[in-house]
Amino acid sequence: MGFYVVLLIASISVLTKFELPKAAQIVITLIPVIPTIFVVVAVMRALRDSDELQQKIQLQAVTFSAVVTGLITFTYGFLENIGFSHLPSLFIFPLMLALWGIGVGIFARNYR
Q1: So where are the chain's domains?
Q2: Three-class DSSP category at 70
Q3: Cα gap 70→76, rounded to integer Å
Q4: How far apart are the first and last CA of the chain?
Q5: Which of 21, 26, 105, 101 is nearest to 65 (CA)?
Q6: Which whole-number Å values give the CA distances from 78 to 16, 65, 71, 74, 95, in the listed order?
Q7: CA–CA distance from 27 to each of 21, 40, 52, 85 (Å)?
Q8: What is the pLDDT of residues 3-44, one digit of tens each?
Q9: pLDDT digit string (tens) for 62-110?
Q10: In angstroms, rounded to a whole number, what is the distance separating the alpha carbons of residues 25 and 107?
Q11: How far apart, in whole angstroms, are the C-alpha atoms of residue 10 and residue 91?
Q12: Which of 3, 31, 61, 65 could be 99's S-S partner, Cβ–Cβ 3.0 to 4.6 Å?
């Protein structure tokens, strides 16, 4: 994640200091995504190597996260129709991660 932060700061700095063609802007904007791919791979490996109980807890937590995130964004979409400000899609993934963490806490407690 440290690598992500460094690349994010570097890409923002380059984009704000230089006038670049659109293709270059797209590439530079997406560079910070590369370290997040490694995070996803690490999470998947950790899950694969965990025992069945931990896998079950994680499955329940991810399912909880997906369903609640969907419900929140679906509901907020209706509120945007009556004048609520637009919710940038950039906030959806952090919401899912936060709800995943909450879900892990809830479902892990069931097995203590």
Answers
A1: 1-49, 50-112
A2: helix
A3: 10
A4: 31
A5: 101
A6: 35, 20, 11, 7, 18
A7: 10, 20, 40, 29
A8: 989 999 999 999 999 999 999 999 999 999 999 999 899 999
A9: 999 999 999 999 999 999 999 999 989 889 999 999 999 999 999 999 9
A10: 42
A11: 21
A12: 65
* 36, two tokens: 């997040």
Amino acid identity for residue 44 in this structure: M
Q: Would you call 102 exposed, middle or buried from its count of C-beta atoms within 10 A (0-12, 13-18, 19+)?
A: middle
Pair of tokens at residue 109: 């407690």
Q: How far apart are CA 55 and CA 111, in angstroms?
A: 13
User: What does the block give as tokens for 73?
Assistant: 């964004």
**In the prediction, which pLDDT does 15 show?**
94
Q: Rounded to whole angstroms, how far apart are CA atoms 17 and 101?
A: 37
